[in-house]
């Protein structure tokens, strides 16, 4: 999708176009952040509702991704804090639900997902931003609304914690985790 | 490590089940947007309405007395704001009350950026407006500055107003409906002129004290406001310190008037001059501008029972004032309504309500007040001597009722004659509204602005600190 086009489009059409193009990518990030298919669905749902609410501002500079990323991460922390109490996030169950989690992916993928799930949300977020989305420390700090030094320390702590909580990963990620 | 971690994450997400989005996501988001906007608009409306109501509109409260729909003296007074608009800025219309005092900033300012002397006019619609007297903190309502009998004008010997030069000497009449002032020049020429003594009942003329040499020597003049002419009152020559509460009074017919000269009082009429003179002695005084009874047959006096010389505050507060009468035809003592005595520093009669009840001000002494044996500047109703004032209704037979008890810091008052005679007391009360304001409101707003900005900064820093602590890494 041409980024400039969506600005000139009817807002709802531009939003639909964006969702069609980027939903899968954001779903993967949500899945890494939550470690659970249903939680990921809910996170994506609240994120895109928020994006629709502010679409004019989100799309104003032609690239909604930075804004969506910020919303996704802030909603992730927010939803985690609410601990999903009495929240009915979906109006209806989408058709064609995929198979349950336990059938998803290889053993190694399950191991990574479970290891990430054992981290604090903030630590999970910095690993996703830095190593999955490949953002710089400055960009990650911007998304999370914290300082670069906080991102550095969170990253260091997350990797150290991974080594303690999931020693089985050490073999996979190598000795660098220990740094 | 980073490449391998990324590789494993990608592998994990590749294996993840697909996530779908509700079909009505756009609609739900937009609905939330409209709801937020509606809530914001409603909140803004509530704030604007609340602020407008609280700040701009005078708050009227229910009548506590017998005012029957017409204009009335309010049941309660508020103190004006430091920056309260002047009569000249936004005329209040006919007054219900005029008052002054020593309440800091509100009734007593600093000439550097405000005005030392201030009097507040309460309009019959409830508006509070100010009259400014730079350099004269001791200005008193009802004596130095007097409301006309119908409350539409104010008489004073000067007032701070852009339309008059500082040197304007003469009797100044300010119209409360327009804010405009008219100067009646001093017939003696030069110097200050014409502190009002008493308005004629029809408001067409008034007695005034005219300074002839600028050093206190004075004579009384009768100023005709219709043509601006003034006529000296023959033979007037004060020989004792002036007691402003007892300076003079008009008879209800407007033709006769009584004036005090030391211990003596003298009745005169416009056509024939002096009719009689009576000596009241050292403890008896003319009761005030409301001394004549409604039928004009008697002149009310007050007699002091208590400390006259070398009095401390307690002795001054314990002074007892009893009422007596002079026959207006002869000046001889006469019998009249048996009014209850008043205890206090002083009492000053303003007029008669509904033909029977004497309306008077009771003055309480200032904290620490002391009256020496000889003090030519002592004045029983003076600004420096008074600590509080209260409006009373004194009924024949002994009943005393409080008609108006103003807030602390109010030391003097004047009430228009028409409201007194109509018995219009206990009317709706209003609060002084912040606006309209004089430009000196910035003197208060700027520090307040700094205070709010400071509080905002502290709040913001607190927010930042709390947020950082919450985001601190889990240990």
From TrEMBL, chain A:
InterPro entries: RNA_pol_sigma-70-like, RNA_pol_sigma-70_dom, RNA_pol_sigma-E_actinobac, RNA_pol_sigma70_r2, RNA_pol_sigma70_r4_t2, RNA_pol_sigma_r2, RNA_pol_sigma_r3/r4-like, WH-like_DNA-bd_sf
Source taxon at top rank: Bacteria
Any Pfam family matching the protein: Sigma70_r2
Domain RNA polymerase sigma factor 70 region 4 type: 111-162
PANTHER family noted in UniProt: ECF RNA POLYMERASE SIGMA FACTOR SIGM, RNA POLYMERASE ECF-TYPE SIGMA FACTO
Highest classification ranks of the organism: Bacteria, Bacillati, Actinomycetota, Actinomycetes, Micromonosporales
Name of the protein this chain belongs to: SigE family RNA polymerase sigma factor
Family under the similarity heading: Belongs to the sigma-70 factor family. ECF subfamily.
The entry's keywords: DNA-binding, Sigma factor, Transcription, Transcription regulation
Residues covered by the RNA polymerase sigma-70 region domain: 28-85
Automatic annotation (TrEMBL), chain B:
Name by which UniProt lists this protein: Uncharacterized protein
Transmembrane regions listed in the UniProt entry: 440-466
Origin superkingdom: Bacteria
Keywords linked to the UniProt accession: Membrane, Transmembrane, Transmembrane helix
